Amino acid sequence: MISEPRPSGAMRYVLFDVDGTLIDALDNQRLVWRTWAERYGLDPDEVHRVALRTRPMETFAQVAPDQDPRECLAALHELEDEDVRTGTYGAFDGASELLGALRPGTWALVTSNYEHRVRGRFARTGLPVPEVLVDAAAVEEGKPSPVPYLQAAARLGARREDCLVIEDAPSGVRAGLRAGMTVWGVNTSTAVDGVHRHFGTLREAVEEVLAFASATLPARPEAAATVE
């Protein structure tokens, strides 16, 4: 069973996933993968299903094993960069209020995307960018490895037991749990396995996240589950 780390009374920190947590980019991701799949004559729905649970190079190995993975990645990056410039998307309700209320140096972004895309989307949606941003290029092991969240904590000078992870995806939840941090899930109709608390929307979590960050809210699990 996963037991939630207990707060130490020290400064608290909040580590946010980006896509699906702060930025609503699901339709964009589906369109990017659909366009990519059509270039290679593949079933877009199947490609997107695989892409949701794997990193790009793993996706290519499964859905296009006969293609050069470097060319596949270059094509995907081209489409994703174009989406940042021209795509239609927005921040989830509550994101601007929440990030604006957190003290500088107490929060970070931990994403499987790349920093220039995050900055582009944040600029277009008016969200602030924190001092610490751990992206796909910053780590050799991505989620569900704990490495991205552990690196973010280290760069903030935070102990893992003082960190709250906000996630929407199973791989990110597993990463936060494996890092020994408190993990809350948002923007899903049902709780992702293992989360300590679940909120149907980010908006519902805003006050609770701020209370955690200010150390006025004890970190109590409302749910716990096993994680491999």
Shape: globular
How widely separated are the two ends?
10 Å
Mean pLDDT, all residues: 90
How many helical elements? Answer: 9
* H-E order: EEHHHHEHEHEHEHEEH
Topology at a glance:
Layout (H helix, E strand, L loop, with lengths): L12 E4 L6 E2 L1 H14 L4 H8 L4 H8 L5 H18 L3 E2 L3 H7 L5 E4 L4 H11 L6 E3 L12 H10 L6 E5 L2 H9 L3 E4 L11 E2 L3 H12 L15
Parallel strand pairs: 1-4, 1-6, 4-5, 6-7, 7-8
Antiparallel strand pairs: 2-3
Helix pairs in contact: 1-2, 1-4, 2-3, 3-4, 5-9
Features of the shown structure:
228 residues, 9 helices, 8 strands, globular, disordered C terminus
Q: Explain this structure to me?
A:
The N terminus and C terminus are likely disordered. It is globular and about 55 Å long. α2 crosses α3. α8 links the parallel β6 and β7. The chain has a six-stranded parallel sheet with strand order 5-4-1-6-7-8, with helices on both faces. A two-stranded antiparallel sheet has the order 2-3. With 228 residues, it is an alpha/beta fold. The longest helix is centred in the middle third of the chain and has 18 residues. Helix content is 43%, strand content 11%.
Provide a short characterization of the protein structure.
The protein has helices at 26-39, 44-51, 56-63, 69-86, 95-101, 115-125, 147-156, 170-178, 202-213; strands at residues 13-16, 23-24, 90-91, 107-110, 132-134, 163-167, 182-185, 197-198. The chain is an alpha/beta fold and 228 residues long. The longest helix has 18 residues, at 69-86.
